[in-house]
Design a protein that fits this description.
binds D-glutamic acid, 2 domains, disordered N terminus, 4-stranded parallel sheet, Rossmann fold, single chain, 14% strand, 256 residues, globular, alpha/beta, 11 helices, 5-stranded parallel sheet
Length: 256
C-alpha cells in the first residue's frame, strides 16, 4: 500500500516485448486514474516466445535496468512469457513490487469442459506454466504453443480488431480458450469466433491486482494521468495505444 505523495511522484512501469502489453496498460490506466504510467517495450527483439529462455531473461533484465532507473512505484510484466521465465528473479532483485500476467486457466476451467490454452512456445515449455496447469487445470487443459502468432499480430496490428489468424490455430473443439499471450488478446474476437466459445485472459485480473496493490479506492480524477512510451518502437506503441482507447470508447461494453 502506498501513500498519496509517493503515488503522485512515481510512475508505474509496464513492460512487454511489443504491442501486446498495451491491452494491459489500457486496463491498468483505467483502473488507476491519477497514476502515471511508462510503457517499456522491445519491439525490435520480439517475439520473445521463440527465443531461448536465457536470451529472454537477458532482454527482460536489460529492460528492467532501465525501469529501475525511473524509481517506479511498481512494475507490471505485461508479457506471459517474461512472467513465466523471470518473475521470481525480478522480485528477488528489485525492491519495488513486480506483478505479472499469467494465462487465466483458473476461470476458464471453472466453466467446465475442455480448456484450450494458447501461448508462446517459451511459455508452454516453462516450468511455471506446467505448475499453473497442475494447480488449476483440473486435468482439462490442452496447451498448444502457437509459434509465429505473436509476431504475426505485431506485424499486422493495424488490422486490429479483425485479424485472420486461423493458420496459427489448432483444430479443436474446446469449451473455453485461454489467450496466454498478451498479443493474442488483440485477436480475441477472431479466436473466440473460430472456436465458438468464450475466451479468457489475465488482463482484468492483473489490472485489478495493481489497483489493490496501489491502494486505490476512489476514482482520482483530480490529477491528470500521464502515459509515456519508451524504448522499442515507441511511436508505433503510442499509436496503437490510441487505437485501443478509441476502440474501447466506441465499444463501452468491451471489458478491458
Ligand atoms: N506478449 C508476450 C506474451 O504475453 C509474448 C510475445 C512474444 O513472443 O514476444 O507472452
Amino acid at each position: 500500500m502506498c501513500d498519496d505523495n509517493r503515488f503522485a511522484a512515481r510512475p508505474v512501469c509496464v513492460f512487454d516485448s511489443g504491442t501486446g502489453g498495451l491491452n494491459l496498460l489500457a486496463a491498468c490506466a483505467e483502473r488507476c486514474p491519477g497514476t502515471d504510467f511508462i510503457y517499456f517495450a522491445d519491439n525490435y527483439n520480439m517475439p520473445y516466445g521463440s527465443l531461448p529462455p536465457e536470451k529472454v531473461k537477458e532482454l527482460v533484465f536489460d529492460a528492467f535496468a532501465r525501469i529501475a532507473r525511473r524509481n517506479p512505484l511498481a512494475a507490471v510484466v505485461a508479457c506471459n512469457t517474461a512472467t513465466a521465465l523471470c518473475i521470481n528473479d525480478l522480485r528477488e532483485k528489485y525492491d519495488f513490487p513486480v506483478i505479472g500476467i499469467q494465462p487465466a486457466i483458473k476461470p476458464a476451467v471453472s466453466i467446465g469442459g475442455k480448456c484450450l490454452v494458447l501461448a508462446t512456445p517459451a511459455t508452454v515449455a516453462s516450468r511455471s506454466f506446467t505448475e499453473l496447469c497442475r494447480q488449476y487445470g483440473d486435468g482439462a487443459v490442452e496447451a498448444v504453443a502457437c509459434p509465429g502468432l505473436a509476431a504475426y499480430i505485431e506485424e499486422h496490428i493495424a488490422e486490429y480488431p479483425d485479424f485472420d489468424v486461423s493458420q496459427f490455430l489448432p483444430a479443436c473443439n474446446p469449451a473455453s480458450v485461454v489467450l496466454g499471450c498478451t498479443h493474442y488478446v488483440f485477436a480475441e474476437k477472431a479466436i473466440s469466433k473460430i472456436y465458438s466459445c468464450p475466451a479468457f485472459d489475465g488482463i482484468s485480473g492483473t489490472a485489478d491486482h495493481l489497483r489493490t496493490l496501489l491502494g486505490i479506492k476512489a476514482k482520482n480524477r483530480l490529477k491528470k494521468q500521464k502515459i509515456e512510451f519508451k524504448n522499442g518502437d515507441f511511436e508505433k506503441n503510442s499509436k496503437i495505444y490510441s487505437l485501443i482507447i478509441d476502440y474501447k470508447n466506441k465499444n463501452k461494453n468491451v471489458n478491458f
